[in-house]
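Q: What does the assembly look like in three dimensions?
Context provided by user:
Components: two
Sequences:
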Amino acid sequence: MSKAATTPVTLAPAAAAAGSLRRNKRYAAVAEVVLFLAAASSVLITIGIVAVLTYESASFFEHVSVREFLTGREWTPLFEPPKFGILPLLSGTLVTTAVALCVAIPAGTIIAVWLSEYAPYKFREALKPALELLSAVPTVVFGYFALQLVTPLLQKIIPGLPGFNMLSAGLVMGVMIIPYVASLSEDAMRAVPIALREGAYAMGATRVQTAWKVVFPAALSGISAAYILAVARALGETMVVAIAAGQEPTLTIDPRDKAETISAFIVRASLGDQPHGSIGYQSIFAAGLSLALMTLVFNIAGFFLRRRFREAY
Amino acid sequence: MVTTPTPSENTGSNQMNAAADVSPLVASMALPQPLPSDFEPAQSPTIKAVAENLHFHYGKFHALKGVSLPIMQNQITALIGPSGCGKSTFLRCFNRMHDLYPNSTYQGAIRLLPDDINLVGPGIDPIAVRMRISMVFQKPNPFPKSIFENVAFSLRVRGGFSRSEISDEVERSLRSAALWDETKDRLHEPANKLSGGQQQRLCIARSLASHPEIILFDEPTSALDPKATRRIEELMTEIKSQVTVLVVTHNMQQASRVSDYTAFMYLGELIEYGPTAKVFQNPANQLTEEYISGRFG
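A: Here is the predicted structure of the complete assembly.
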């Protein structure tokens, strides 16, 4: 383009070049606008979601005080008399997330270490896509897996376990997010330069020592990002908990109890016929805003963690 | 745990037998001449390790074709030669670094004296070899840990050292690597805050901490500026009283400045070996002369 414009040999090609230059400039301008719109749309959609959440929540908080919302111990927005304490939903969300992380973080990390430091090359190349396939299973399948298979098994070990419980839902959710943790952590560990591994081996380190004392700490920034993603994923996960944890807001930290999470409440309330503008309808948005804020907090924490552990190598 | 003998233990009477053992081999290849007067040891040095007809294959590629070479104790032996001549491959046989990658095969022997074990023998654990033979790499590669923990690493992987033993050893190693004065007030800062030259000296300290018998240097100054290079060279000369040094270098001046013995390799074979002064001033082989004078390579 610039070559055609700067080196006109004769008059006629120069005129043609000028024409094509004008056309190219037009295309470039159009392409720039399209690219900008594509990039802007994601930002605009995010702003839109936050705006709707905030707007509807604002009407909610005209009826319900923030204090009641944050400290109330009962959540019955769809019954008479309605009560709007978010704590039961919060406890359900946090307990299922904690159970899920107890499964996903150790298992995912160990799988990542094994894949990156032990598995033969060919095996790794075959196993990693298979692992990632696990995340392609629809979450509703995991939900029924928890309810129909895992809960009955757990009931044999823990007598008196109710048919709906957070333990089963959390365990299955943990299995569901193992691939995220494993795959991202493995990427982070693969990215550790071979020179660091050689340095460790040259000092007489064994494979286990090299993996845990050198490669793992060096990859900690990427691995912590994987953990944060797992937390965000578990917080927002809906189907498994909606199906297997029972849809009854309960303020408890015992994973054997049934409970409802924020996301599961949103599903249940959205499925019911909440008149537009009613307090029940608005409570969906208040719950949604709480969930968005929690995820945001974890993302910010993740950002600082990553910066804290960033290693220049 | 493998015990790491201190250098003083290596100079026993059995050392003489071991040295006598390999003397026909040494005699067959330009026997070391008396050292130039500016070198410390007056008596002729003992042999620390000896490669005997060492072959090495990467898959089907025949990288080392029967290399036989003695490594003198508490001396610096330089390996020189054009790129691809196998000098790094040879160096990395000494600590079994090739075992980290598939399809590596050794034939022949590298005998470590005085206990006469074949480092590349089939029954030898590479980790046990690396406990005794340490390495410094081309690019400084400190671990993403503190300065202290970098030096303590080789003791921690061995285990069984008390806290005070570890901190004494860290200080000793940093002093040996001429890094103590610069780092003593910031031992717990991340090692990657150090400059490139300091990082490389830290890697040397890290290697010294476990009292290795041999340290392998794989082009240790190629990533450093001339001033830092100078310091590493001085350091190599200083540490040779505690440890045997084997260094691969592309830099002719470096080989002639720091080394006591020089081995010239070409296409996977040893072409010439002898005291550095002789190899550089009066090479026996035409190829060596051409390489040293910069006519190829």
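Follow-up: The first helix of chain A runs from residue 2 to 6.
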